[in-house]
Structure formats: C-alpha cells, structure tokens
Automatic annotation (TrEMBL):
Species this chain originates from: Nocardia amamiensis
UniProt keyword annotations, A-Z: NADP, Oxidoreductase, Pantothenate biosynthesis
EC number(s) per entry: 1.1.1.169
Residue stretches making up the Ketopantoate reductase N-terminal domain: 5-153
UniProt-listed Pfam families: ApbA, ApbA_C
Residue ranges of domain Ketopantoate reductase C-terminal in the record: 177-315
Recorded metabolic or biological pathway in which this protein acts: Cofactor biosynthesis; (R)-pantothenate biosynthesis; (R)-pantoate from 3-methyl-2-oxobutanoate: step 2/2
Function: Catalyzes the NADPH-dependent reduction of ketopantoate into pantoic acid.
Protein name as catalogued: 2-dehydropantoate 2-reductase
Length: 349
C-alpha cells in the first residue's frame, strides 16, 4: 500500500518534499494557507532541480486542506512550518493523529522536535533537516536551488518510508543523534540574516568578501560559545566548521578556488528569511542567532555579533526596509564585537 503522507506547512519545503513524494507514489495531503492551496490546485506542482530534473504532479494527484482533519489516516507527518509556528501547527493534530505515527520535523533550528514531542508525546517524533534551498516561483513551481539531501534522526520506525524517499530522489541521511548536525546547520544558517539584510541573492552575497566576513564573525562567536558548552558540531562541509569560518575571510579569488562549491547556487536563490522579510512575516531569527545568544548567556560568554544581527532583523521585521552593503553590515558587526570585547574586559576586571 502507498504511504499516506500529511505535510503540515504547504510552503517552499513542504510542497517540494511533499510533491516529490507524491511523484514517487505516496498519497500526499498538503495542509496550508488558502492562498497557497489555491495556487497549487490551479496549476498542480512543478518541481525542478539544480541538476535539470523537472517533475510535475497534477492537482488530482494530491489533496489539500487548511486544517489537518484527516490526520488519523496519515502514516507519516512532515512538519514544514517555520519554527515560530510549530507549536500551534502541531496542536491541531492533537486528538486526531494515531498513537505511534511518525512525525518528522523538517525545520531549521535546534528545538523544534522537542516542541512537537511535548505536544504529541504518543507519536514517534524525529528531528530532521533540509540541506538544500528551495525557491518558490509563481504557478506552483518549486525549484531546488542547491545541492543536498535530508538529514534525519535514525529510528526503526522510518523503515516503511525509506523506499518512497529513495524513489523520490530525496537522499535520507540517517544519524543516530541529529543534534551535532543541527548545530552544524545552524552555523551555516547564520548566513540567513546576513543574506536577508543584504537584499541580494545568496550567490551574489556569498561572492562578496565583506558579507563573508560578517558570516565569519557570527560563526566564530557561535563556535566559541559552542566550544564552551562542549557542543561539537558535525562536519557538513568539505572542511571542518572552524576552517570554513577562517576560509570565509579569504580574498574572493582564493575563496572561489578552495570553496567554489559553496557558490554552486541557483542565481536567484535567497534565504527563506529574505522571503519572510519581503512578505512581512516574522522570521526565524530567534531560532538561529537567538540560540547562540541563549547559549552564550548559559555559559557566561557575551555574543554581541549575533545579538546585533537579531536587532537588525527585528528592525526589518518592524518595517525598516533598508538593505545593507557589505561594508555597512560589517561595520555594524565589528562595532558590536568591539563593544562586546570592552564589556568582557570590564567584567573580567
Ligand atoms: N525554504 C528553504 O529553502 C529552506 C531550506 C532549508 C530549510 N528550511 C527550513 O524549513 C522550514 C520551512 O521553511 P519554508 O521556507 O518552507 O517555510 P514557508 O515557505 O514559510 O512555508 C510554511 C508554510 O506553512 C504555513 N503555515 C504556518 N502555520 C500553519 C498552520 N498551522 N497550518 C497550515 N499552514 C501553516 C505558512 O503560512 P504563514 O506564512 O501564513 O504562516 C507557510 O505558508 C523552516 O524551518 C526553514 O528554516 C527552508
């Protein structure tokens, strides 16, 4: 029998992953907002890929809903809302979902699986991460703009679904403990606020040394607090996180030669935080830089660079529509770092 997959959050990731599973034969229901559901039922889903794959899933081959009313028939639930929406979205499943159902979080950040587990203690809740970027184009078109598969916490309950993920071309990398992967992905996602504040596509932003210097500042600060907290991030890039942070500051030509793969991104791809700001939505900044600031407070280390990024993104959420050039943003973060060092010295005296 085909797997019945319920996707909570019909957005970029939910429609791409759910759509691919539908193409591979799963019975998919996409739960989302009316505007998005109208778009994808009018046109069906078109799912394209960096490597040239081009799949279509006609509208009569998936179901849509604004509420997860048929959660009781789902074999697998994918949670693909933004972190701020997790608790509310999964609360709608409570009392409807069958005990033992596998609920897989496909979200950035560290604690979404814990939030889901608290609401649905009777389910098999697993952490997962999407390692690629998806761009939404009008007409139900979702495009995977970077390399990468899905990283998930391994569990025997995943066994019935491995085949459909494989047929869908969604590589499922299974880890006995996903936390080190989540922390490593968080280090990469510290680029999301920088990308969003830059107002540029990812490829253009990362090709600019000053924006990369901003990311290096944020990553080094994060690595220092993670080290103090004895958190060892997994290695997701060809070079270890600490070396990658150093390499980010290299001149453009050297960076391109050594880490050119980082720039293998669709030219129009942006971070999902850039999409959130453009659409006037709340961002995931508290689940990215906020995790670092929280961890810093826990281990007694100031985190002024990540704190400044939070302030700038919150100002943008509140309507400050300015975009920052590389030198301007770097100036902001260097000033913050200098203030933080002065504060630390004063505290140490
Ligand atoms: N996009 C990417 O390329 C990418 C890549 C890697 C990882 N991620 C991560 O994947 C997760 C999903 O990101 P995304 O970009 O796919 O988000 P998205 O495009 O914003 O999609 C989520 C959708 O779910 C809807 N939603 C929220 N609460 C809901 C509810 N209770 N019931 C039904 N629908 C609800 C949202 O509507 P509203 O906006 O109206 O709330 C939105 O349309 C995030 O953690 C993100 O960081 C994204």
């Amino acid at each position: 029998m085909n797997s019945r997959v319920l996707v909570i959050g019909a957005g970029s990731i939910g429609n791409f992953v759910g759509g691919k599973l539908g193409v591979a034969g799963a019975e998919v229901t996409l739960v989302g907002r009316r505007g998005m559901l109208d778009e994808i039922t009018a046109s069906g889903l078109r799912l394209t890929d960096l490597d040239g794959a081009d799949d279509a899933l006609a509208a009569d081959r998936f179901r849509v809903a604004t509420e997860p009313d048929d959660a009781g028939s789902a074999d697998l639930v994918l949670v693909t809302v933004k972190s701020a929406a997790t608790a509310e979205a999964v609360r709608e499943l409570s009392g409807k979902i069958r005990p033992g159902t596998v609920v897989l979080s496909l979200q950035n950040g560290i604690g979404n699986d814990s939030v889901i587990r608290e609401v649905l203690p009777q389910c098999v809740v697993l952490a997962g991460m999407v390692m690629f970027n998806v761009v939404h184009h009008p007409g139900g078109h979702f495009h995977r703009g970077t390399e990468g598969g899905l990283a998930v916490q391994d569990d025997p309950a995943l066994a019935p679904f491995l085949g459909v993920f494989e047929r869908a071309g969604l590589e499922l990398r299974r880890y006995p403990d996903l936390r080190p992967v989540q922390w490593a992905k968080l280090l990469l996602n510290l680029n999301n606020p920088i990308n969003a504040l830059s107002g540029r596509p990812l490829r253009e932003e990362l090709a600019d040394r000053d924006y990369r210097r901003c990311l290096a500042l944020a990553q080094r600060e994060a690595l220092a607090v993670m080290n103090r907290a004895r958190i060892r991030p997994a290695r997701l890039t060809p070079l270890p996180p600490r070396v990658m942070a150093a390499l980010l500051t290299a001149p453009n030509a050297l960076f391109q030669r050594v880490a050119g793969q980082v720039l293998a991104i669709d030219p129009v791809a942006r971070s999902s935080m850039a999409d959130d700001l453009a659409l006037g939505r709340k961002t995931e900044i508290s689940w990215l830089c906020g995790e670092i600031v929280g961890l810093g407070a826990m281990v007694g280390m100031p985190t002024p660079v990540n704190q400044r990024l939070i302030e700038l993104v919150v100002a943008a959420e509140q309507g400050d529509r300015r975009t920052w050039t590389g030198p301007e943003l770097l100036g902001q973060l260097r000033d913050a770092a200098a203030g933080g060092s002065a504060e630390r010295r004063a505290n140490e005296r």
